Structures are given as C-alpha cells and as structure tokens.
Amino acid sequence: MRIVVLAGGIGGARFLRGLQQASRDADITVIGNTGDDIHLFGLKVCPDLDTVMYTLGGGINEEQGWGRTDETFHLKEELAAYGVGPEWFGLGDRDFATHIVRTQMLSAGFPLSAVTEALCDRWKPGVRLIPMSDDRVETHVAVTLPDSGERKVIHFQEYWVRLRASVPAEAVVPVGAEQSKPAPGVLEAIAEADVILFPPSNPVVSIGTILAVPGIREAIADAGVPVVGLSPIVGDAPVRGMADKVLAAVGVESTAAAVAEHYGSGLLDGWLVDTVDASTVERVEAAGIRCRAVPLMMSDLDAAARMAREALTLAEEVRGA
Ligand code: GDP
Ligand code: CA
After folding, report:
1. Is 138 in the pocket of ligand 1 (CB under 6 A)?
2. How many other C-beta atoms lie within 10 A of the C-beta of residue 104?
3. Which protein residue's CA is at the shortest distance from atom 27 of ligand 1?
4. Domain assignment present for 269
5. pLDDT tens for residues 132-144?
6. Is residue 14 a part of any domain in this protein?
7. For the chain, is the Cβ count within 10 Å smaller at the N or the C terminus?
8. For residue 188, what are the domain limits?
9. pTM
10. Minimum CA distance residue for ligand 1 atom 5
C-alpha cells in the first residue's frame, strides 16, 4: 500500500513512527513542511524535515521532541562569546553538522529535495522524505509587540521560539508560497497514493503551509483516494504547541470539529477526534466528513500505532462507501 503523509515536526514525526509500526510493508512518502525553515549563522536550518528524519532515524532527543540525542552546545557558546546570535534558537553541536552539510550541498547547486535525500542516506528513516518545495517559503507572523506597541511581521521561529507565542498571531503568511512549485516527486506521490493521511500536525503552519504550495491541495482533492486526518486539537486545546494561536489568526476556533471544517469535505474524507471530543462527531459528519472518536494521545509508540491503524481503518471505510 502506498501512503502519502503531509507532516510538520513533532506531531507528524511521532505519528509516522506509529504508522511504520502499524503498517510494516507500506510504502510511505512524507511531504514535509519547509515553511519553518530559517537561515541562522549562514546555515540553512529545516526544523520540520530534521525532526522527521531524526525521529524515524533514531537520532531524536525523545523528551524534547526536536534536536539530537546526546547533544552538547559548545559551538553555540563559542559564537555567543563573540557576541554572535541569535541566542534564542537551540542548535547543538551534532545538529550543526546536519545544517553545515545541507548548506554546503545547496551552495554547490543541489536542490533541497536532493539534499534531503542525501541526509536521509545516513539516517535511513524508512520513508521517502520529500520537502514540499525546493523553493524558499518562509512562514511569517504579524504581531503587535507588547512593550513598544509596534506592529511587526516576524519569522515564525521568532514568534514561536523567541516570543513563545506569548502575543496573539494577527496574521500568518507563508512568504514565497504563491511563487513556489511542489518539489520533484510530490505530485507524483500524491497521484500514485492509495491513501493520504494528515497526521496530528499543526493545521495552519505545518499542513496549511504545505497546502499553500500551488498544485498540492488540488492534487490531493483530485487524487480520488481516501484522505483521512487526525485532530491535533484534543479537548478544545492543542496537545502541545501554539495551534490555538495560529488557528485564531485564520479565524478558526480551537476545536477538533472546527479544524475538520477548515480543511473541508472537498479535501478530507475522514477525520479522527479524541474520545473526549466524541460529542463533536455529529457536527463533523454534518459537514460531509466521516468521523470517529478514538484515543488520540501519542503517549508511546503503541498508542501512535493504534491511531495509525484507526486512520487506515477509517480510510477503508470511506473507500468502501
Ligand atoms: P511541530 O512542527 O513540531 O509543531 O509539529 P507538528 O506540526 O507536526 O505537530 C504539532 C501539533 O501536534 C500540535 O498542534 C499538537 O497539538 C499536536 N500533537 C502533539 N502531540 C500530540 C498527540 O499526542 N496527540 C494529538 N492528537 N496531537 C498531538
Ligand atoms: Ca514546525
């Protein structure tokens, strides 16, 4: 079975690990969000691609959910001693190596998709990981700074990591998305898929950004195969992160049902909500999306695998309908 998954960072990666356990001989292609990418210290950093690669490749810091295991921070300390920042973005010594290799290859003229494949040669994530686009797309967030009252558009990482999403997101803009093209292999994978899954990734700044690359949303809607998503919102709040803040920016309430309606029945065939949100199943189904309530907390690998099985079961149900 060929499965295509649109993934952000932590939510996407943990779900993917469950999917691999649930469906051992599936051929999985991951379309990764690159809207979180940022240039730091002259290096190209791709946080979501790396989180997927490290998580599936066994190199992730499990507690944190991002960055390398067994990490040290000498390089960053040395840079800080020169007064060179930013100090707010955590980059460890092991992680730096990935960004150096990536930047070197990009400078030599390789597209990001080829670079990602080369990095995956080492990590062997067991999936085909393709960035959504080889073109530069960077998510920016409009905010009003609390101290100065100044309205400013800042990089998503600055909003999330530096400001810790402490102020409202007034708008979310995937800069460059309109001019971008899907990376080689993205549309082909969607066209050849048997099932397309939206893991419990951020609906705005992860999956929303991937869908903002012209051609991807249309390809999924036209694929003619079941498209099933899992809610990242449980009990009217994100399980972790700032999905509520960026959902508010696009005028969507932080509920499992509202996120399903936001994707819409033109895109989604099936939607899983957590058992605590069982009362919203009816509302989702009224929107033309088949819905089930099952446990959606990825407390461990087995729990994530059970969620993946539920998603695949719902996909078969939708296919048969
Ligand atoms: P990021 O790029 O690291 O923020 O990761 P993603 O976009 O892939 O996923 C972030 C989303 O995953 C957040 O909105 C969380 O609410 C959601 N999430 C994280 N852990 C869980 C979980 O155990 N269950 C569910 N349902 N959602 C989760
Ligand atoms: Ca992310």
Report:
1. no
2. 13
3. 232
4. yes
5. 999 999 999 999 9
6. yes
7. C
8. 2-58+112-133+178-320
9. 0.98
10. 9
